[in-house]
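Data availability (excerpt). The following record was deposited with the supplementary files.
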Amino acid sequence: MNKTTPCTIKNYCLSPGMFRLDGGAMFGIIPRPLWNKVAPADDQNRIDLDLRLWLIQTPTKNILVDTGIGDYHGEKFDARFDVRQAHSPLTEILAKVNLKPEDITDLIISHLHFDHAGGIGVFPNGENEKIVPALKNAMIHLHRDHFDYSLKPTMRDAGSFHKKIFLPVIEEMDKKSLVNWIDGEEGEILTLDNGEVIKFKCSHGHTPHLMHPYTNEYIYLADLIPTSNHVHIPWVMGYDISPGITTENKKDFLNLIFEKNLKVIYEHDPKYWGSTIVKNERGAYVPGELFLKDDKQVVEI
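Predicted structure:
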């Protein structure tokens, strides 16, 4: 395990890869002339997106939030979504902070869509063989109600859940008592070495019981506010199951972020790993200080 000084807590943003999704789908009802100014589309109407993970490192723990998209999809899928990453992307990105997959002690899963949980398993002997956990020593922290939903989603979002990947891994880890089933709308996930608690709060507009972990300093917004351009409350993704609920969730979360003076981590923003949140002259929430990624795969924050 990578060593740190006693009680030192380090935070990193890790970018194992990039991909593209349809710009119209990413911005819902917002007209293209508006969103294209801040997120220029390619000739197939796709915009560039990051696959950003959050790593929290303590003297005794290496805690990872989400796993990236995985590398099992094949050439057709990778071309459709313009996936750009190394082979074994999770292993490669962890190596950049001197860690191996077996060094990860805890995995917090925001939700089980393929671009967030695709890296949970690997096929060491080829895709026709058995899938195994990518992080074999990690305690998986997963919301029970979201997991139940992922097994019986609607026809609208069923394609986002690659059950053949995550289900065997979760079942195997659960048999080993390595799944911490989370319940409720908000609460605690685990305690750090210094006594600080990683807490969570759920949103429901994008997918039911999407779990957002946060500390005293940072919050991981996943697909509730996937980029800095989605802070404006009406800018809601077309992918969301319940866009109206997303707007209510965004107001609730932005109030929390502002009151607690948290820095937000944007999982998909290609340019900024995060920002502060402030109110403008009209009282609306907007990004404050924006924190550049600077094309780095690893940023200590």
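Summary of structural features: DSSP finds eight helices and 19 strands in the chain.
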